[in-house]
Amino acid sequence: MYPDRAAAAELADVPDAWLSGAAVYHLSAYSLTGPSRRVLCRAAEIARAEGAIVTIDAASVALIDSVGAAAFRALIGTLQPTYVFANGVEADLGSLRELAGPGTTVVVKNGMEPTEIHAAGNKLSTVRIAPADEVRDTTGAGDAFAAGFLTAILDNAEPVEAVKAGHSLARRALTQPGATLTTDEEGVVRD
């Protein structure tokens, strides 16, 4: 998982063996526009060759603006992701719903409004969100959503069920400060 530019920006000359064998490669679009782009594009190539899942998070409106909507969409499209995650503003600005097609599903998160699932053949599903009891911090909610979604997909869930799992984990992240989930003394995440 390469969710941000921080340490991932330093990736260079990564042996293919380190990339091989993962079930999912989750990439942030931030990382795809920086110095680690070559390594992450190679990771996506290995993933596709091995039948793994490739996901890309659109990352930010500012990023799409800086790259340009058409160039950004083309960059994402060339990687042939299995899933693209974006919020509604990112999806609108980058016309990211257009990426939905054979092999690519676009998941658009709309805050408290239903999440959209765009699949091949203009198939659209929406999934309502149960409200969080108390929102304390939004930091990490998007990454938590992706983690919950992908965990469910790896357990063979259909996209609608995976979105529900993503909502559940994101809701937990929203109720705790600092992009963390509370754990017990043994390091196990508690509900």
Question: Notable features of this structure?
Answer:
alpha/beta, UDP-N-acetylmuramoyl-L-alanine:D-glutamate ligase, six-stranded mixed beta sheet, 8 helices, Carbohydrate kinase PfkB domain-containing protein, kinase
Structural write-up:
By secondary structure, the protein is an alpha/beta fold. It has two domains: 122 residues, Ribokinase (UDP-N-acetylmuramoyl-L-alanine:D-glutamate ligase); 51 residues, no CATH class. Helix content is 40%, strand content 17%. The chain has eight helices and six strands; from the N terminus they run αβααβααβαβββαα. It has a six-stranded mixed beta sheet. A hairpin with a 3-residue loop joins strand 5 and strand 6. Helix 7 runs antiparallel to helix 8. It is globular, with a radius of gyration of 16 Å. Belongs to the carbohydrate kinase PfkB family. InterPro entries: Carb_kinase_PfkB-like, Carboh/pur_kinase_PfkB_CS, PfkB_dom, Ribokinase-like. Keywords: Kinase, Transferase.
Q: Layout of helices and strands, plus pairs?
A:
Layout: H1 16-19, E1 24-28, H2 29-32, H3 37-50, E2 53-57, H4 61-67, H5 69-78, E3 83-87, H6 88-94, E4 105-110, E5 113-119, E6 123-127, H7 141-154, H8 159-174
Parallel strand pairs: 1-2, 2-3, 3-4
Antiparallel strand pairs: 4-5, 5-6
Helix pairs in contact: 7-8
List low-pLDDT spans: none
CATH topology of the largest domain: UDP-N-acetylmuramoyl-L-alanine:D-glutamate ligase
Largest sheet: 6 strands, mixed
Report the C-alpha radius of gyration, rounded: 16 Å
For the termini, the CA-CA separation is 23 Å
Strand and helix order: HEHHEHHEHEEEHH
- Work out the count of structural domains: 2
The CATH superfamily title of the largest domain: Ribokinase
Instruction: Give the overall silhouette.
Output: globular
CATH class of the largest domain: Alpha Beta
Protein name: Carbohydrate kinase PfkB domain-containing protein
Family: Belongs to the carbohydrate kinase PfkB family.
Pfam family, one: PfkB
Keywords: Kinase, Transferase
